[in-house]
Here is the input.
Amino acid sequence: MSQAPFDGNVTAGDLADIFAFDATTAITTCATCRHTHPIATLRAYLQAPGMVLRCASCDAVQIRFVRSPARAWVDLRGIAMLEIPPSTEG
Amino acid sequence: MLWLVATVAETIAETARTTTLRLDVPVWPGHRAGQHVDVRLTAEDGYQAQRSYSIASPPGADRLELTVVRIDDGDVSPYLTTVAEVGDQFEVRGPVGGWFVWDGDDTTPVLLVGGGSGVVPLMAMMRHHTRTGSTAAMQLVYSARTLDDVIYRDELTTLADGGHRAVTLTLTREASPQWTGHCGRVDTDLLDEVGWPPPVRPRCYVCGPTPFVEAVSLALVGLGHEAARVKTERFGPTGA
Here is the structure.
């Protein structure tokens, strides 16, 4: 697969609409390979209908996010665990 | 998170393809150096386009500053760089992203490595360092194609005070014999020559196109820097 043009940093705004914390600093355990990565460092694909975040180690899909004007859908099947750091002032 | 109305207060041509927009955002909540905003444009027919841009201004600055590279077939950057005029309005959402940030609350040395417009969030960190009088040693290694492509060229000269801040510029395609500085890409040799030795345990921030970020972060880890102290931000092959 070609190199992803973006990483998870770029998804911070959309994820801020879904999660009550800054999701880009949260750490995922990949359901496929069990490596852990901050969401900021996942590979981000923005040209799909919505947004796809893939594991930085094994490239498996971790997060899929699709939105319409009325609602959003979040598929987290690729994540075995989400570790959320304490909130910091921002 | 709410979309806020931003009004263009000033535009500054940085290079032939790069423009800084100074924005008035009345209820801007403040930000950390390295964060970004999402910009949303709405056409008359209702079509919306959204992109993420790094914030160039330091925390506490009077106005929010974005530095944008024009991508000719882009949805957003041609408007921001060539159409937007003083008084125009669009929407911003932010600040967002708490990963690629430097708060300057300690004196740990900092190595910033930027490629092309990847220098923008690093500039927010340099400006924050200056504004707060930080005594953390901060070093910027910045790669651009030619001297004319160097964003913030004059300000970088001022910021590199020879004391707590240093700037190393390397040009990948400059053909002028007048350029006597570093040539070529940021590689292991350059990072070994001008960067901190790994035992110093600097915080490293690497921002640029994906291939640049991959190469620099691998080189830093190869030199012995801990991967966990190397933070990265990738924004595509040509910018966004």
In short: The longest helix of chain A spans residues 12-16.
